[in-house]
Design brief:
Layout (H helix, E strand, L loop, with lengths): L2 E8 L6 H11 L3 E3 L9 E8 L2 E10 L1 H4 L14 E8 L3 H18 L2 E4 L4 E3 L1 H15 L2
Antiparallel strand pairs: 1-5, 1-6, 2-3, 3-4, 4-5, 6-7
Length: about 140
């Protein structure tokens, strides 16, 4: 089963893993992304270490026009000033956790807006943290 999560960011949001690692550290999030990756041009697996475990998530920059029809209306997303990052993962709980943590970091630090296409809902940082906690508790069983 494949899952997706979309993240909407303003065009001036820093997309380098150096910035992402700094933001994660400042928020106390136990994740470190591989250095020297720019999500603006990256397509495919984004390696990370989560709580000492090697993991990652597939990341793709997607044109807004390709996801517009999936979206519920929102005043938080300006199509003309938005870059869309899509996270994809299979059944691996740590990959899902990596996706949710990454979206949460961008939401908390850069006012990113996450969208879950399965539920048709926008998710705030608090909801993303709840998702992380659910993934981690389920993965430990």
């Amino acid at each position: 089963m494949s899952m997706s999560l979309y993240l909407f960011l303003t065009l001036d949001t820093p997309l380098k893993t150096k910035n992402l690692n700094e933001a994660a550290k400042s928020l106390g999030v136990p994740i470190v992304y591989e250095e020297n990756i720019d999500l603006a041009g990256h397509a495919g697996f984004l390696p990370a270490v989560l709580n000492g475990l090697k993991t990652g998530v597939e990341v793709y920059k997607t044109p807004y026009s390709q996801v517009a029809e999936l979206l519920a209306s929102s005043d938080s997303v300006d199509p003309d000033n938005t870059v869309v990052i899509e996270f994809r993962w299979g059944g691996d709980f740590y990959e899902g956790t990596t996706a949710l943590y990454t979206a949460m970091i961008y939401s908390a630090k850069y006012n990113g807006v996450a969208f879950d296409p399965m539920s048709g809902r926008y998710l705030g940082a608090d909801q993303l943290v709840q998702g992380v906690e659910a993934f981690l508790s389920y993965g430990e069983q």
